[in-house]
Amino acid sequence: MGRADDAYEWYEDEEAAAAWRYEESAGVRPLELVRPTPARIRVVAPDDFEAAQAIADHMRRDALVLVDLRGCTPALNGRLTDFCSGLVYALEGSLQHVADGVLLLAPRHVDVSGDEGSDIRLPGFHNRS
Q1: In a shared domain, residues 19 and 48
Q2: Does pLDDT of 121 surpass 70?
Q3: Residue 93 sits in which domain range?
Q4: Residue 101 shares a structural domain with residue 56
Q5: Quick one: average pLDDT of 100-111?
Q6: Do the Cβ atoms of 81 and 69 come closer than 8 Å?
Q7: Is residue 49 part of a domain?
């Protein structure tokens, strides 16, 4: 008698033993059922305000969004920064400056850790100075 035969003796009825044999033959491991979803990071380098729609769509799909505003005019930079602040507030996410002119928008279930002094946790809007 092998190891599998010994295990079948634990079951009082043949139906339970058959179910155990099926699970064993299927090769499903219990921890394979619990897999984290892969993190998606989208990079958006806007050249006009139309990019706001793409930023919002990515955030609604629970992706991290890296917004590179370095190539924008100061007026567009301000409008998009305000838009991103409102977006993360509405979706209960977070916004963090990662570099000069670069914003990281994270959905509410993603915790972005780093320099606590530069975190902008909402509620509240980001104040541009």
Answers
A1: no
A2: no
A3: 41-120
A4: yes
A5: 90
A6: yes
A7: yes
- Tens digit of each residue's pLDDT (9 = 90 or more) over 13-49: 666 656 555 555 555 555 555 666 667 899 999 999 9
Q: What's the chain look like in SS3? A: CCHHHHHHCCCCCHHHHHHHHHHHHHCCCHHHHCCCCCCCEEEECCCCCCHHHHHHHHHHCCCEEEEECCCCCHHHHHHHHHHHHHHHHHCCCEEEEEECCEEEEECCCCCCCCCHHHEECCCCCCCCC
In-domain check, residue 66:
yes
- Asked whether the whole model's pTM tops 0.70, one would answer no
In the chain the first and final C-alpha atoms are separated, in Å, by 77
Which pLDDT score, from 0 to 100, does residue 17 have?
A: 59
pLDDT at 21: 57
Q: Which amino acid is at 76?
A: L
* Number of separate domains in the chain: 2
**Buried b or exposed e, range 41-72, using 16+ CB within 10 angstroms:** ebebebeeeebbeebbebbeebbbbbbebeeb
Are both 50 and 17 inside the same structural domain?
no
